[in-house]
Every structure is written in structure tokens, then in C-alpha cells.
Amino acid sequence: MHFYCKQELLINSINIVLKACSTKTSFQILECIYLKTNNSTLTLVGNNLELGIESTLNANILKEGSVAIESKIFSEIIKKMPNNEIEIYSDENNIVTIRCENSEFIIKGKLGKEFPDLPQLTTSTGYNLLQSNLKEMIKQTIFSISQEESKITFNGELIELKEGIFRIIATDGFRMAYREMPLEITTTNIQSAIVPGKTLTEISRILSNDDNLVTIYFEKNYIMFDIGNSKIISRLLDGEFVKYEQIFLNNYNTRIKIDKRKILLSLERAELISRDGKNNPVKFEITNDLIIISSDAELGSVREEVKINLEGDKFIIAFNPKYLIEVLKVIDDQIITIDFVSPLHPCIIHSEEKKYKYLILPVRLN
Known about the structure:
Layout: E1 2-6, H1 7-17, E2 32-38, E3 41-47, E4 51-58, E5 60-63, E6 65-70, H2 71-80, E7 85-90, E8 95-100, E9 103-108, E10 110-111, E11 127-130, H3 131-139, E12 156-162, E13 165-171, E14 175-182, E15 191-196, H4 197-206, E16 213-218, E17 222-227, E18 230-235, H5 244-247, E19 254-259, H6 260-274, E20 282-286, E21 290-296, E22 301-307, E23 309-312, E24 315-319, H7 321-330, E25 335-340, E26 347-350, E27 356-360
Antiparallel strand pairs: 1-5, 1-7, 2-3, 2-6, 3-4, 4-18, 6-10, 7-8, 8-9, 11-16, 12-13, 12-15, 13-14, 14-27, 16-17, 17-18, 19-23, 19-25, 20-21, 20-24, 21-22, 25-26, 26-27
Helix pairs in contact: 1-2, 3-4, 6-7
């Protein structure tokens, strides 16, 4: 294999596929980046058998071939090279030579044929949405997944396409995040998949903030995201996701409308006291035109008032402030709506058109 390419383009592709390279494994080939040349294209692949990423770039190909190179050293070498044209050559013994200007590295590679192939997905039916929209939807839900490995389906997000609506839902058993977006499609197919949270975190880092498209393909055990010159293929989580439709009910006894920024700042201040020690919740006392936010701990106490528009009953309820703060930080609306049923039932934070919904379980007051 022998080719020339630009250092900037190569390092961009390396940074993308690195997200799928294993760091600690007995299967050493998974610690490598696979390089393959074909016509005028250089393809890089990372694959840890749960997540696989392929990235392509233009290159001047002198000889076609393939090789696998240990990802960490390859990445560090290319990053330290001048921003100029790089020459890479591998011989029949998989010895790789990397040259740029006055620098030359010679490192041992591995046989390209030993690198595991990415799963081959059917790409006849894909669903398009803006990269910026998917990036935002992941950001607005990913914090609600569980970090406990015992809750397998809670370690991922449900991605669902039904009745022309694209949805992402996450839960850890104490809260649930829901985000939806209409798609311009005519299909009546229902698609759903539980995608690992780690996969979506890496995808979010690859997605751009512009109007470029990402195409999503669903299969039985895998999902693929086609992002320009990159393809991300992830194994799905087994199991059945919770029936979110039955959780987000529309009934409420109390509804408040409140300035998001004001309640967020109040909660952040209240958390300074509540985080002293363990299980110190923040208490909401809902009155006619105010919500009184307070917290008591061994360190001291805090009390703040924020104006609200109230519809319904007055009462007192308590929450883990962290759950509320994480929600409020990802909502763009200036005014938010919060629905309550009782001090023992979860609250639901939502927009007028219900494009986002967040459910949070309360903390029982002594």
C-alpha cells in the first residue's frame, strides 16, 4: 500500500474512527485503525465489535492495499506531523513508513485481513434529518440514561420512528427525557431501537451544527448513521424499553408557568446547601403567585421566591435538584410549563407543543 494525503484531512478521519477503537482488550487487532486504499479513496476503520466507525477521504493512491496500525501511536504521529502532504507506505511484512517533509517514522503494522469487517446493513430505506437537529435531541436527553450497568435497557436511548415523528427517549428509573421532531416522510413503517448511550455520545461529537443531513438505517441488531464521509454502525441493546406513552399522562391538578432562567439560577443556589451531606432535597412550596424554593442541611439553609403563573392547587413537593438543573440547562425556551398531580407523583416539564417532555420523580418529605 502506498499513498499521499493531506495531514489535516487524515487527522480529522483518525479522530473520528478513534472513538470506536478499543483501549484495553486481549484482541489486539481491535486496538488498531484499519487503512485501506481503493481508486482515489483512503478508508479508515475503527471497530470494537460493539461500535464501528468508517471514515473516507481523498488521497493520491500509488498502490492499493491494506494494513492495520496501532491506533494510539498512529494518531500521535500524524498529529505531530507538519500540516503538509503525508506519504504512507506499507510493505509485504506490514512495516509501515510514514513521511512528511523531513520527518520519517517506521512502525510495525498488522495484516489488514485480520481486522474484523463491519456489519453489512441494507441501505435501501434510510431516514434523513438535519445533523444539528439530531445533535440537539441527543444533548437534550442523554443525561437521563442510567450509569448502572445492571439496568441494560436504561444504559441506552430509545430511538423511534412512528407516524412520521422521530423520537428519542431516555430514562434511569428516576426521571425520563423525551424529545420529538416531525420528519418529511410518507412511510407508515414503525422503527425502533435501543441505542447504547456511549454510541450516541460519540455520534453527537461527530455531528455538525449546520444543515447537513444524517441518514439513519435500522436493522434487527444494528443501527447505522451515515454522516457525510463517515458511517457509524452500532450494535443495539437487547430488551424491551419502558412504555413511555403510559408514563407521560396529560392529567394534572396544578400547572405553573415560570421563567426558566430564574428558576434555574435559584435551583443552582439552593443546590449549594442541599449538596451538603446526602439526600438533601430542594423543596418547592407552590402558592398563588410564587414558588418558594428552599433547602435545609446541617451546613445551613436557603430560601428563595420566584414568581409564577398558577393554575390549580397549592401544595408542597421536593426534588433532587440535580435532576431539575440538568433539564433546565438544555431547554431553550424562556418560559416553561411544569405540571403536578400531587406531592407523591412525578412532575412533567414540557413545552406548549410537547416537543420535549421531562418527567422527574419527587423525593418523599419527612
